[in-house]
Amino acid sequence: MAFDPFQLHVPHASLDVIVTAAKHEDGPKVIRALNDPRVHLNLDQPPFPYTEADWESWFKHVKDINDRTREEWQAMATSDEKRDVETSRSTRWIGSKGWGSMIRVRVARSDASVLGNNSDSTEVMIGTIDVRRSGFPGVVDRQEQAAAVAFNNSLPLGDPRIVWEVGYYLISEYHGRGIMPATLQTLRSKVMVPLMNVHILTGYYFEGNDASRRVFEKCRFEALGMVPDAVLLPDSKARASGNSIGVGIMRWTRAEDSQDEMDASQST
């Protein structure tokens, strides 16, 4: 079967995990997850409470990313270097708008389980994972942060100097089952490295979120330190200590990690 980055199988000891594009019917699951304090208190971006209108806005955004990525993936299959030079357009890489995807598990339908036939299964959305050019949330000085973002965004697609940032969450019922490290490592080795030419990947976690820190550590990220009071939270997500929270910075560098190079060579 030909490799398909939009049906990405994630190796896992006990679950059938896949990474796919977003679907509109994912809405109720996402809304429930992002109103769960075990999820939303570890995220700064999604608003709380998270409403159907919020979902519709986000789905439009991620569908735009998915549609563009599909176009770029198809263009790679018919890439012509001479044509690219003539049109000043590269079809060598995907990710001009980043990468957005849903994490799912395939589970047997109840009637199929009764019959002992697990081939009749359905996909259940359990989380999201996305990759984008970094917004450098660990840089407290806003002018310095804006300059870093502007330079990073000015780099052409495929430039190894681009600093990418990964974000993710799982619905709480699937926490602590080793899903996220497996998903992140698979997406990095099968998509980010060979298709996006990612060389620098960063991740951030809120102070006290040890579970997220361990995900990065299992994926061979290096800890760069904790920045106190780096993020100002809205009142709806404020802690007892106030609205500011520290951010831990994690960084993976391709030049220092040969494993993903080896995995990427086997991705197509």
From TrEMBL:
GO terms for molecular function: acyltransferase activity, transferring groups other than amino-acyl groups. InterPro entries: Acyl_CoA_acyltransferase (IPR016181), GNAT_dom (IPR000182). Coiled coil: none annotated. SUPFAM superfamilies: Acyl-CoA N-acyltransferases (Nat) (SSF55729). Pfam families: Acetyltransf_3 (PF13302). Residues 49-222 form the N-acetyltransferase domain. It comes from the Eukaryota. This is N-acetyltransferase domain-containing protein.
